[in-house]
Design a protein that fits this description.
about 400 residues; alpha+beta; 19 strands
């Protein structure tokens, strides 16, 4: 069965290799997930029509069929055949791409695994990503899956707002992967586990402790100091599970008032989708609303949250196993989604970790992982006036 990975290989080969420069439309297949790829638009045209290979613009562009093929004399064509300036993709490869689209654009072909591990073999199950980021939004109906690869901007269907101008929520999607280690401890294989392989049960807990927490900056006491029932200030959904049940609400309370923190769902493949709240903030104190500080305001709450994610995997004829846990953060919307920060969440986490444990400092320096990201920040400089004025 053809997979998304194979499609990337064909397209890379067509332009001269995985590192070859691509002209006008860019290498739109690189650095994206399968879901982002099938939602792509190139020159304003939808790339793929799932289930209809011959009707998809990707196939038409490779064949030089209208509206593509202006460089090879196709009548009525407004765009060049792909790849422009290079030999055409072979008929066999085009047929393979068309068949992949007809088959629903499958992501991966799961290898056939033995029901039980071989002697000396060890299998570990991990949730990916280890930390996922969802974002609140005011739309009650529309949402989209957030980025699933580093450096990739979010790609909703259509704009970031719904038809009423309300902001779509960004969901975080989680998957389970099986890591197979041989008798010598060497990694022997990795595959995603879906509902077609095993019964998966996800358990999620979302919590907002902001109103009970220490003031900012630290060392100046706690918020809402006159509230004796400190637990009433913590908005806690409790642990909620989905598996055979496809969805569950995540709801807590703030001083007796119900606060929706979002919901959890599973898709047809058994992957977990976490949606946060709707960006609501409210005052529950006496008298008129008061905002006295940028960070510390008593009697207020919002619906941001974060919390742990756990999963159990049950294969037919085998005992259920627990996957290594993960974490989800529900953050505000990112209003400039294609502009990256100069410091990533990973940078912050690694910096904090190495201050607590010096042994975590990498023993060798990698140009790709450690040096190049610093140089890449130069592209962000024009968006930061302080950076531009001091380091221009």
């Amino acid at each position: 069965m053809t997979t998304f990975r194979r499609i990337i290989e064909i397209l890379d080969q067509a332009v001269g290799g995985p590192s070859a420069f691509v002209g006008a439309h860019g290498a739109f297949w690189r650095g994206v997930t399968r879901d982002q790829f099938v939602q792509k638009r190139v020159f304003g045209q939808p790339l793929v029509v799932i289930g209809n290979g011959s009707g998809s613009n990707l196939v038409k562009a490779l064949k030089g069929e209208r509206p593509f093929g202006s460089n090879i004399g196709t009548p009525g064509a407004g765009f060049r055949r792909m790849p422009a300036g290079r030999p055409p993709v072979s008929a066999a490869d085009v047929t393979e791409i068309s068949g992949w689209i007809n088959a629903g654009c499958p992501e991966e072909e799961a290898p056939q695994e033995a029901a039980q591990p071989a002697p000396g073999e060890r299998r570990v199950y991990r949730i990916h990503p280890g930390i996922g980021v969802a974002r609140v939004g005011s739309s009650p109906t529309d949402s989209f899956i957030g980025p699933e690869a580093p450096g990739v901007a979010p790609l909703p269907k259509g704009p970031f707002r719904d038809s009423h101008g309300l902001i779509k929520r960004q969901a975080a999607r989680f998957r389970i992967f099986e890591y197979r280690f041989g008798a010598a401890g060497k990694l022997a294989g990795v595959r995603e586990i879906t509902a077609g392989d095993a019964s998966i049960t996800w358990t999620v807990r979302l919590v907002n402790r902001k109103a009970e927490a220490e003031k900012f900056p630290p060392g100046s006491g706690r918020r809402n100091p006159t509230v004796s029932d400190r637990a009433s200030l913590v908005i806690d959904s409790g642990s909620q599970s989905v598996g055979t049940a496809k969805a569950a609400p995540m709801v807590g309370k703030f001083r007796g008032r119900e606060v929706p923190l979002g919901e959890i769902r599973t898709d047809d493949a058994g992957r977990l989708i976490v949606l946060g709240g709707f960006g609501q903030s409210e005052y529950v104190g006496p008298g008129p609303r008061r905002i006295d500080d940028f960070a510390n305001n008593n009697d207020w709450y919002d619906d941001m949250s974060d919390g742990p994610i756990a999963a159990t995997v049950k294969f037919p004829g085998r005992e259920a196993v627990s996957a290594d846990p993960a974490w989800v953060i529900v953050a505000p919307p990112k209003y400039a989604p294609e502009i990256n920060s100069m410091m990533t969440l990973y940078d912050q986490a690694l910096n904090a970790a190495t201050q607590l444990d010096a042994s975590l400092v990498p023993s060798t320096v990698s140009f790709t992982s450690d040096i190049f990201p610093i140089f890449a920040c130069c592209r962000i400089r024009p968006t930061n006036s302080s950076c531009r004025s001091r380091h221009g």
